[in-house]
Amino acid sequence: MKGYLTIVLAAVMLTCAVGDRIRVGDKDGWAQNVNYTEWAANHRFYVGDWLYFIFDKRYYTVLEVNESSYINCNDKDFIYNITRGGRDVYNLSEARPYYFLSSGGYCWHGMKLAINVEQQPIHPPYPSQSPHKNGAFPRENDDNTFITVLFLTSTIWAFFL
């Protein structure tokens, strides 16, 4: 029973740890005059994913804020300052709306992001996705699936040895 519980716990922890790393703003990164509303509309965000903010830390910051502060570009009562070195990650640890902005007035130049994070679907929504040019549907989590299977196999193997 103890071994079974260990395996289940390891699987749950691994599922949370292997989310996708999503570069905010894609090639533009976290910068002024980027339409993050449009950018976010083209992405799905799931519990366990990591937002990867790339920016010049001499000028910009990344603050998690509440919805009211997001709407009003208020950086005074932020929830969490993500800013560390300009190549910063933030784990989306629960299913809920998240709001981010840059302080120093840059929010007024578009440096704000609102996303809604969902629970990871049990079965990927492949049929609703549009196919690639070659007609194949995209395969998003092959690396994560491989890592999960490899980890679980090695955990089970170690348990029985």
Automatic annotation (TrEMBL):
May act as a carbohydrate transporter. Keywords: Disulfide bond, Glycoprotein, Signal. It holds the Pfam family Cu_bind_like. InterPro entries: Cupredoxin, Phytocyanin-like, Phytocyanin_dom. Residues 1-19 form the signal peptide. SUPFAM superfamilies: Cupredoxins. Residues 20-119 form the Phytocyanin domain. Belongs to the early nodulin-like (ENODL) family. This is Phytocyanin domain-containing protein.
